[in-house]
Amino acid sequence: MSNTATTTADTTATTAGETDEQLKAEWREYAFEGEPKLAVEDLNVHYGDDHALDNVSLDIPKESVTALIGPSGCGKSTFLRCLNRMNDRVSSARIDGSVRLDGEEIYQDGVDLVELRKRVGMVFQSPNPFPKSIRENIAYGPKKHGDIQTGVLARLLGRADSDELDALVEQCLRDAALYDEVKDRLDDNALGLSGGQQQRLCLARCLSVGPEVILMDEPASALDPIATSKIEDLIADLAEEYTVVIVTHNMQQAARISDQTAVFLTGGKLVEYGDTDQVFENPQSTRVEEYITGKFG
Ligand SMILES: Nc1ncnc2c1ncn2[C@@H]1O[C@H](COP(=O)(O)OP(=O)(O)OP(=O)(O)O)[C@@H](O)[C@H]1O
């Protein structure tokens, strides 16, 4: 599409009578500078006979927030989970198509899934800290992956270098805007934190292994308005350094925090994708307009 950043796949809404193929060709032209961090092409997901994602293609720019919105069951979470191959864990799932991370196909033989999920981390709907101390929640991943440098003494003692670990714990908690609230109780059990604090701890845990992309599946849906607002502020800050992809049911939230918005509608189709302002203020598709204005969904 030459003069607009919004793309649409809704044939019923177009005046020029474009075919699906023509519209699909336009998807690739959603304009942003630089190479995409994630490039998704012709992605289809079936759970048994259920076609959950129907030929979805979109490019996600780096260091930005991309919101995925749409009615319940339209495939948002399925799409999100394809971006770090979490759907591989679902035995009934069949995934076809291509997802490239920095140009590298993630659905090819030999991809190290542990490494992939370090690069493409995930924060879930309900905060799910480990029943361990705040410190241990963050140290767990780097220790498991052997990312903490160990000195000779530390190796002899069979433990990680504590200074480095402490610095990492502090940095991740700061980046998750939680440090000041918990700095005096790092050895307390994480389950004693409030829901909003637990969710920020989960984000800190995700950051601890050095991701490039952060996937968030309705990260604020279980939180009160104040905790939600903290998470939203945090997402804006994170986008300076990370590529954030977030599923949300809350359209105001998508409009507030995202740079791009992708709208999925029933049947697992991506119907519109473009600059958030344009999608919300001037959607190209009548079905998207009806969804956004609350006429259905
Ligand atoms: N693990 C699974 N096994 C079988 N079917 C699944 C599984 N996960 C999702 N589905 C089906 O795939 C379709 C898309 O579900 P998905 O959870 O991706 O949608 P969603 O848009 O994220 O929904 P919601 O907004 O309600 O969370 C639905 O029909 C759902 O029942």
TrEMBL record:
<keyword id="KW-1003">Cell membrane</keyword>
<keyword id="KW-0472">Membrane</keyword>
<dbReference type="InterPro" id="IPR003439">
    <property type="entry name" value="ABC_transporter-like_ATP-bd"/>
</dbReference>
<dbReference type="GO" id="GO:0005524">
    <property type="term" value="F:ATP binding"/>
</dbReference>
<dbReference type="GO" id="GO:0016020">
    <property type="term" value="C:membrane"/>
</dbReference>
<keyword id="KW-0067">ATP-binding</keyword>
<feature type="region of interest" description="Disordered">
    <location>
        <begin position="1"/>
        <end position="20"/>
    </location>
</feature>
<feature type="compositionally biased region" description="Low complexity">
    <location>
        <begin position="1"/>
        <end position="16"/>
    </location>
</feature>
<dbReference type="GO" id="GO:0005315">
    <property type="term" value="F:phosphate transmembrane transporter activity"/>
</dbReference>
<protein>
    <submittedName>
        <fullName>Phosphate ABC transporter ATP-binding protein</fullName>
        <ecNumber>3.6.3.27</ecNumber>
    </submittedName>
</protein>
<keyword id="KW-0547">Nucleotide-binding</keyword>
<dbReference type="InterPro" id="IPR017871">
    <property type="entry name" value="ABC_transporter-like_CS"/>
</dbReference>
<feature type="domain" description="ABC transporter">
    <location>
        <begin position="38"/>
        <end position="292"/>
    </location>
</feature>
<dbReference type="InterPro" id="IPR005670">
    <property type="entry name" value="PstB-like"/>
</dbReference>
<dbReference type="GO" id="GO:0016887">
    <property type="term" value="F:ATP hydrolysis activity"/>
</dbReference>
<keyword id="KW-0813">Transport</keyword>
<dbReference type="InterPro" id="IPR027417">
    <property type="entry name" value="P-loop_NTPase"/>
</dbReference>
<dbReference type="Pfam" id="PF00005">
    <property type="entry name" value="ABC_tran"/>
</dbReference>
<keyword id="KW-0378">Hydrolase</keyword>
<dbReference type="GO" id="GO:0035435">
    <property type="term" value="P:phosphate ion transmembrane transport"/>
</dbReference>
<dbReference type="InterPro" id="IPR003593">
    <property type="entry name" value="AAA+_ATPase"/>
</dbReference>
